[in-house]
Amino acid sequence: MIKVTEVVKRFEDFEALSKVSFEIPKGKIFGLVGSNGAGKSTLLRIMAGVYKPNAGGVTYDGEPIWDNVSVKEKLVFVPDELYFLPGASMNRMARFYQNYYPTFSMERYQELVEQLRLDPKRKLSGFSKGMQRQAATVLALSCRPDYYFFDETLDGLDPVMREVVKSIIYEDICERNVTAVITSHSLRELENTCDHLALLHKGGLVYDYDVESVKASQVKVQFALSKNLTREEMEEKLAVSFQSFKQEGRVNTAIFDAGEKDIQESFQVLEPLYVDVLPMTLEELFTYEMEALGYSFDLESKEEKHESSVQ
Amino acid sequence: MKVPFSKRAYREGMRQTRVIRLMWLTMVAIPFLINLVTFFDSLRSDYKFSETLEDDSSLLLFGTFFMGGLLLLIYPVSIFLSEWLTSSYHRNKRAAATMNALPVSLKERFFTSVCISGANVLLITLYKFLLEQTYVVFACLYLKNRGSNPFKLYGRQYTDTWGEYLRSYVFFLLVGLFLAAFLVMCRELSHSVVMFIFWSVVGVSLLLFTVPVFNIFLYNSSNLIQINWVDYSDRDPFLSGVLELLVWTMEADAFHVGVILWLLVGTVLFLLVGWGVNRWYSVDYLENETANYRVAKLVYVVADLIAAALTLSFMSSAEEVPILSVICALAALPLVHFLIWNLLGRKRFLHTLRYAFIGLMAALILFVVAVLVRQEKLILPEKEDVVAISLQQGVAGSRISFYVSRERTTVNRDAISLVYDRIKETLKGNQNGQKTADRIPYYGMLLTKKGTTAYRFYLRVEDLSRILEYTKNETSNVYEEEIDYGYFYSGFTKEEERTFYEILSGEEHRKMNRIRLDRRHAVTGVDVLLNGVGGSRIYPVPGLSDNRFLRLSEKQPKSIAYLMSIAEERFGSKVKECLTLYLNGDKNAMTAQTRLTIICRGATSEGINLDCSIQKKDTALYVWMDEEGTDYPVSEELTTAFFEMLFRNCDGKGTIEDSVMVYVKLDNEGNISEDMANRWYLMVTQSDILQWISQLREEYHEENIQ
């Protein structure tokens, strides 16, 4: 189990992380999401032992990670900005990692290289960005550690390859029942894979929840009413509090904590013309949560401004 | 963040402005082209360019330009190489993010960083060695075309043959490759503590062995302490050997001390910086490139400057190296360092320019200091501070070399004063002076309590008689040390010399073995022969150095005939007769004369040079007269005769025309002394010497003397 305890990280006057605490049970896929500059990469680097926290700490089954070779041997960190030895090929990097990781599997490496059709003798500097990501992933998976840390690893991959790499990563994780921490801006990437999700904002952990339960707890309803009601009137009649509400003509969209209510039935009090319960994506959840925290881009107004300037 | 030292940043830096390009063009291309032209020009047989580089200062300029140009080209390469080698550890953000996550403890990473930093220093130092040697090659070419010894610069024998030179060059290249190979290996295996140990061993070994080995290969080691391995093998061979080697290295000369200091100080400072940089970069620096980075840079540069300054201070005391070139090269290092670092590492041009300017100023100051240090040696000391002089003259007869003792200055102050005035006169008018009919070029050394400085100046013909007159009554005050400054004149004209070599190259001749401990072996043959011919020693004989004299025999009839023709032309039939006797195998005719040097050494204007050795062991006087260095006891009677002869001539009977200069090693009690510092010059008439030799011969059967 990974235990992050009140981790604080400062860079001179700037506090990148502020008392972040959470736990990741073994065998879980942990998604770390947050806005740009929220501290995701910093947290991941602290968890991987790259940075030393100013306060707090990270332990793996009770052992601290900082400057602990035996723990580090159990984890592999794939950073957002990849680095390979100058002029190195995949084969050379494989030998390089083999030196460091006792669990490194050459067979697995060969298998993955063939699966992704990468040229292991070619210089990595000649690879495209996407291919470099694949190579880094292959090398990381070949180390066969107990813990993976992927920092926006799927960025830069084309949709097809993203799915391929994703499936390879998740298959490996599931097969070996290892723990993975994945950061991404794209919640869609994490939606169907992560067991657990943490939301970072301004260096602090805002939410830390189980994906399935949160998806089940939140509900998104699209409905149209025969008469005009304000948001407050609707909330009063439904006896709920909308986390998000949008009105476009007569069509309303609301997100709220449904509890165990029957949505269709409870909405009858509003005498709707129609009621539709829509699937809730993590991205929507993330967006609404961030909006609630005051982090939002006023895209509509920007678009309007843009359109008017074009006209 | 712009990654410092990256190729991309380098390119961007180079593109930033035309000023930079112009600067680089000026600093790199022009000197390099000049030297390239010089080089190719020097290969031509007529070699016109050499006419413009006739004096020593031009040679220094030549070397400095070349070395500076080459440094500016190669040093960036070494920087890139070191970047390439170290980037995986601490020099950029991406690398650190990946590498710091690897299962390597901070301690191991620190040691690795330290090892790599140290290795970088060695690598860069190696480059410097190679540079110096490249410089020497060109300088040798230059000298060769000047008709001087191509392997000897300012008294320092770099090597004897091109083959040896190339061998040493290849050796160093191999060392470089070896080092580079291990560095590459180190990148992958650096996590291992074993590698640290390995590197320590390699580093120390290189440190200990590189310079001496370099010395063995490239320098005439007559000035070095010879290691007597046999003596140590009975005790603790390893420890004694290492200690001896260390002593040998340190006692080599100031130049090597400077190099070693550079290595040691540079390494320590680099390690400290490596530690600092590693610490900053690996932990907190990744997201914060401001303050720490600048401090690290500053420390790095300061370290460079300190190392260079310390090295300079030591090197400035070396008298036999092309010191100005070395100083210029060293002074250029911080400058280049500044420039490269800042050109590559800064985001903004103004920053770059500012740092470059600071670097330029710092290097300039260093350079000026270095030049002043050099200049100080050219400035005459106060006359009162001069406690002794030494003169070397090499036009007619052999050189006259002596010191005026420090102890009895009352009479010899006149001699000192005279020489001092002549030097001053020469320096005042024209440092190199102009040869006139009544002026003879001399090399003189003025000894002060602070040190010795050599000058080239002109002495009037009558001055020598006056000096000898001043000193004849104080003969016991005049002693000689065999300090060879390499300032020799050939008695040949350039044309004669060339002809001699051509003839010699067409004949079989063997290279004498290196004689280090017992130079007596070398005191026969052409050295004497040529002294007799009227010139001083001729050095630029391929394969020979000052203690590898060429011995001509019946196997070189043409060369001998040529020399004799010159001898006859210059000095008449007497010399020819003498030489002929010798060359015809009547060694006694010549040997007795030619082998009387260690105690009796000198030359008359008629070209007779005497070489032999007389040593006093216990109470008896021994004479060395054969090539194996066997000592023969001399009877008391003969000893007495000898001393009588010497003291008789101490009365000043001898003159330069009819006397030979003889020096005797005497200790304070009047015994023959082994101490070089107690050699006394005496003026002895030629006839006296010959008479004494004949007495000596009577005491021994000829077979014993052979």
Features:
heterodimer; A: 311 residues; alpha/beta; 4-stranded antiparallel sheet; 14 strands; B: 706 residues; mainly alpha; 3-stranded antiparallel sheet; 24 helices; 12 strands; disordered N terminus; disordered C terminus
How would you describe this structure to a colleague?
The complex is a heterodimer of chains A (311) and B (706). Chain A is of the alpha/beta class and 311 residues long. In chain A, 36% of the residues lie in helices and 29% in strands. In chain A, the strands form three sheets. A six-stranded mixed sheet of chain A has the order 6-7-8-3-9-10, with helices on both faces. In chain A, β12 (242-248) and β13 form a beta hairpin. The longest helix of chain A is centred in the middle third of the chain and has 18 residues, at 159-176. Chain A is elongated. Chain A starts with a strand and ends with a helix. Mean pLDDT of chain A is 82; it is low at 297-311. With 706 residues, chain B is mainly α. Chain B has 24 helices and twelve strands. In chain B, the strands form five sheets. Chain B has a three-stranded antiparallel sheet with strand order 3-5-6. Chain B has a three-stranded antiparallel sheet with strand order 8-9-10. In chain B, β5 (439-448) and β6 (452-460) form a beta hairpin. The longest helix of chain B has 41 residues, at 106-146. The radius of gyration of chain B is 29 Å and the shape is elongated. The A-B interface holds A 11-12, 16, 42, 45, 48-52, 67, 69-70, 72-73, 75-77, 79, 81-83, 85-86, 95-96, 99-101, 149 and B 84, 87-88, 92-106, 187-189, 191, 283-284, 286-288, 290-291.
- Quaternary state of this entry equals heterodimer
Task: Please give the number of β-strands of chain B.
Answer: 12
The strand order across the widest sheet of chain B is 3-5-6
Shape, principal axes of CA atoms of chain B? elongated
Number of continuous helical runs of chain B: 24
Low-confidence stretches of chain A: 297-311
Cα-atom radius of gyration of chain A? 23 Å
Task: Report how far the terminal alpha carbons of chain A are from each other.
Answer: 58 Å
Secondary-structure element order of chain A, N to C = EEEHEEHEHHHEHEHEEHEHEEHEHH
What percent strand of chain B? 5-15%
- Give helix % range of chain A: 25-40%
Q: Record the strand order, biggest sheet of chain A.
A: 6-7-8-3-9-10
What kind of sheet is the major sheet of chain B?
A: 3 strands, antiparallel
SSE-based structural type of chain A: alpha/beta
> Stretches of chain B where pLDDT falls below 50 for ≥5 residues?
1-32, 38-91, 127-169, 183-201, 203-260, 277-296, 310-355, 370-378, 393-411, 430-434, 473-492, 509-551, ...
